[in-house]
Amino acid sequence: VKQDGRNGLRFYAPEMQKHSERALALATALKNAIANNELALVFQPQLDLQHHCLIGAEALLRWRHAEWGVVSPAEFIPLAEQNGLIVSIGWWIIDRVLEQLAALQRAGRAELSIAVNVSAVQLVQPDFVTELQARVAASGVPAGALDLELTESVAMVNPEETGEKIARLSAAGFRISIDDFGTGYSSMSYLKRFSVDKIDKSFIDEVTHNHEDKTIVNAIIHMARNLGMTTIAEGVETEEQRNTLQRKGCDAIQGYWYSRPLPPEEFAAFVAAHR
Ligand code: C2E
Ligand code: CA
Ligand code: CA
Ligand code: CA
């Protein structure tokens, strides 16, 4: 912090206050977001690189507020995790994804799966597994169509209890992905609990020309394969990145090159056009 005599904090304090005022206002407005119909999901298609076909999508949350416009999930999800709202929002997300999966089944596309981001705060709820199983059973959708994406920070909270929960979810037939592996601090032994490894965009951005990123992506793909896991690279924006990943044996990709995240009607049209 730059010192400026007695008023050293003059230039910084108002900024910080503005920031926390916005956070507080957002957190308050978020309480009514479901009731006010301000939340929506978009679906980002995933492409199988070996068979060149659509395999499913990742559901991503959007919040459109009357005053602030579209608020990024990177900004409001941490707030919803702090005040616990993420639990009810998380169930709302899962119900919408189950509706989308049921629609895909009716359309004769039962081979497609949808990935949903599950916050650690929701996962640690004592009734998470039984509640999830009840909702999935009521929807008529097979558990295998739902892919649960957990970030590695999940492991930091309570490794033993989380590990046991992941084992129960796998036994119940859900696919479990580890999101952003390698960007945090979890141990490699933790990886073997998961069925899918999502390779973070930060490793993909320069995968075609940065030697270190190439080496990291190679190592992730080989390690995942040897552990019997599937790899999905995220944030693939160019054909060159796609080709590099295909050569390295990455199983699937997701990113603007294949498709942006799409609202439900556009996603339905994308599905109809892609076998
Ligand atoms: P994430 O799970 O790593 O999701 C990938 C992010 O990368 C998404 O940002 C997606 O829109 C963006 N993306 C995908 N392809 C490309 C690309 O080719 N180029 C670029 N530049 N970006 C790409 P988004 O939707 O803003 O979400 C940000 C983060 O917010 C997500 O990161 C996830 O951690 C969290 N999030 C989003 N939706 C949910 C949700 O429903 N529940 C929870 N708990 N977290 C969510
Ligand atoms: Ca994700
Ligand atoms: Ca990710
Ligand atoms: Ca990411």
From TrEMBL:
Superkingdom assignment: Bacteria
Domain EAL: 23-275
Protein known as: EAL domain-containing protein
Origin species: Oceanimonas pelagia
Residues of the full protein shown: 823 to 1097 of 1097
